[in-house]
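Tokens in:
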């Protein structure tokens, strides 16, 4: 579930930031229906994303590729991204190198 929260925040925060920047550009002007429409658009886009991302997450947990593929398609890509796992490198031990030597050749 932490990945779901992170993915939702990675989508929601830029949407909210864009809306706040547009409000900053309008600073000093009266709020009109266009501004309200912008806020509603951002809110609906975030709810849409969150709804289908939750359904996709449920599909992942249920090992059901149908739900996962349909919801992923409605998010713009049939599968959630996967990232290769790399082994952690050992820390460099400065005692292995004599003083004044370089490892650059």
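Residues out:
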């Amino acid at each position: 579930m932490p990945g779901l929260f992170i993915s939702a925040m990675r989508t929601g925060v830029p949407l909210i930031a864009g809306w706040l920047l547009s409000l900053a550009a309008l600073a000093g002007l009266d709020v009109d229906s266009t501004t309200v429409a912008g806020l509603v658009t951002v809110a609906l886009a975030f709810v849409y994303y969150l709804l289908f991302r939750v359904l996709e997450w449920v599909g992942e947990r249920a090992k059901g590729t149908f739900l996962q593929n349909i919801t992923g398609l409605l998010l713009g890509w049939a599968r959630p991204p996967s990232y290769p796992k790399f082994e952690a490198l050992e820390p460099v031990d400065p005692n292995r190198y004599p003083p004044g030597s370089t490892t650059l050749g």
